[in-house]
Amino acid sequence: MRGEVIRRVRGGIAALVLVGLVVAPWVVDDYTTAILSRTLALALVGVSVALLTGVAGMPTLGQTAPYAAGAYACAVVGSRVSDVGVVQLAVAAAAGALLAALTVPLVVHARGVIVLMITLAIGELVVIVLGRWRSVTGGTDGLAGIPAVRPFWGLPALADDQARYLYALVVVATLVGAVLVLLRTRAGLVLRAGRDDETRLRASGHRVALHLSGAHIAAGAIAGAAGSLLVVAQQYISPADFGFDTSALLLLGVVIGGTASVGGALVGAALVIAVRDWLFGVLPGHAPLVLGALFVATVYLLPTGVNRARGRLRPPGAPALQPDQPALHEQATVAELHR
Known about the structure:
By secondary structure, this protein is mainly α. It is built from 16 helices and two strands. It has a two-stranded antiparallel ribbon with strand order 1-2.
């Protein structure tokens, strides 16, 4: 009974948030609408971080790499090949998935803090490449003057901030809905079971590395699609959009929203990015310091948000932080998988 009430309350809150997002461009000014469009793009990257960190148990600081790959692929295609949104979205997702696939051998076999270090290094290397590959990326100056996108063939271009925001909202809602549906399937259950008790899942005959590889590639595709939304919102990109500060903010947002919750990660990442943009105007030059303090406070005050991503967040053989509840949850998850 109580669980049913909680589900209804959550459903009502989600509906109110969705209605608020839909009517937002008619309530706020164009500048705020443009910020909201960029926030939606980064929130979608936050969903990919939650998929890896909270669901698959692979903490990451490197989702800005497929995010950047998708953004630059979209920018190049939009400038030279096609201004159709679905084409650019597909190319961006494919670019993000391809980069993720290339880094699978480096990521899926690592554990603990090593995963964070590897993904951070991948993200930083991608930023360096973007800054030096001037013939394609424009170097540190970036790519400007990207044509406005048309959602489909025959439709007019998205010429104002309101239209670009609604396009981003539809894409984000569609992709988040697809992720939520996927996580309710057997594939999502296998990922959670591997996060909670990888040894037991291997012993039962499941190919854990294969499932983790699939999750890593899927997360790369989501981040790549988010990159195309950034291009639509800004019509300009540069390596500065994909630095370490962005990675840290995304992880902070996911921790605040709950690493095991896709919806929570979406809201948390959007909140952190919105606060960052607001702080840059209120406290010029001090926003990174404030956000850093917020990150440290979150780790200490909201430990349950971090602990939800168990398994690979702990080194092999390390004791669980809450011995009783995780053990019961692991048994329940693996048992459900074998029904």
